[in-house]
Amino acid sequence: MIKDDAEIFGWTDINMGKTEISDLTILIADKNSFIAKTLFSILEAFGAKRIILCDDLDDAEKKFHNVEIDCIFVDFMMDKRAGLDFIRKIRTKPSTKNDPELPIILETGVTDIDSVILARDAGVTEIISKPFSPAQVLQKLDSAINRRREFIQTDDFIGPNRRRHKENNSEWAGDNDRRGTNRETQKKAMDH
Amino acid sequence: MNEHLNKEQMLARANNAVEKAGLEFSGELKKRIRELEIAIHQNNRQEAVLMAYNLESEASTFGWPRVTRICKWLRKIFSGEFDLAPEAEEVLDALNALKVMVSNPEERNEQRDAALFEKIYPSLKRVISEI
């Protein structure tokens, strides 16, 4: 990789041990031929060489079990919103080829808060809203592959930590702060 | 293919690809609106929702903002997400507006489309306040 790529795109030292976008295998599960074709062309223009296009979720699931994949793009509305079930399956049912932590980017034209929460709780890595520009696709792909969040597995949730990077969280220290000394202060106040 | 593309090269190539896809989309737009119209006339709600959703995404990607908003309206009404039930005539007006807007994609008429949209907007807004 040339220096520029590493600096700008950040393809360095990632968990998968791959450093070139051309090394990635990317699966697109989207029934909308134009958007899928456009996304395909965008990824191809970025240099991706292995792009698998699936227009139904059964096929996408087969690929998940049979092909090593580095990232999946899936449409929210695909097969009557079964895209979310597909994501849950990936997160909960292991495949010999892919681990449950596989980066998943959900494409959606429906961006109301309820839908976003549904998607987040299904375990998506990133959400990209339609219409998307090439710059947005690049940013989401970079974020999903190179800036992975801690993977959480609990009874209620399996997926990337729903909180973003720690450095993005502002330090709040108001009266009701339950951390550190304030927590002690609160406890004392409650004891009295 | 050169594997060592920098970010600017990647984006330039990708923007060209989107432009080409946009031209292809414009060429199919009339047919797609006709298919949506058929699904609506056949009262095939599921198909209408999916078609309207797809058209909404595509039209917004390829620079058809009014088509996007009308398709969003149609998607929402056929998904049952409305404030007041639409009259059949309002749905027909929306469909007719769509058909006129895409009648000649090579020579778009902004003035005509703006006037058409303005005309149906009160109906769209009556049915779904946040459109």
What's the short story on this structure?
Chain A is an alpha/beta fold. Chain A has helices at residues 3-9, 33-46, 57-66, 78-81, 83-92, 113-122, 134-146, 180-191, and strands at 25-29, 50-54, 71-75, 104-108, 126-129, 151-153, 158-160.
Give a description of the structure.
The complex is a heterodimer of chains A (192) and B (131). By secondary structure, chain A is α/β, with parallel strands linked by helices. Chain A has a single domain (2-11, 18-150), classed as 3-Layer(aba) Sandwich (Rossmann fold), CATH 3.40.50.2300. Helices cover 42% and strands 16% of the residues of chain A. Chain A is built from eight helices and seven strands; from the N terminus they run αβαβαβααβαβαββα. In chain A, the strands form two sheets. A five-stranded parallel sheet of chain A has the order 2-1-3-4-5, with helices on both faces. A two-stranded antiparallel sheet of chain A has the order 6-7. Mean pLDDT of chain A is 79; it is low at 1-8, 10-18 and 178-183. Chain B has one domain (29-127). Chain B is built from five helices and no strands. Chains A and B meet through helix 1, helix 2 and helix 7 of A and helix 1 and helix 2 of B.
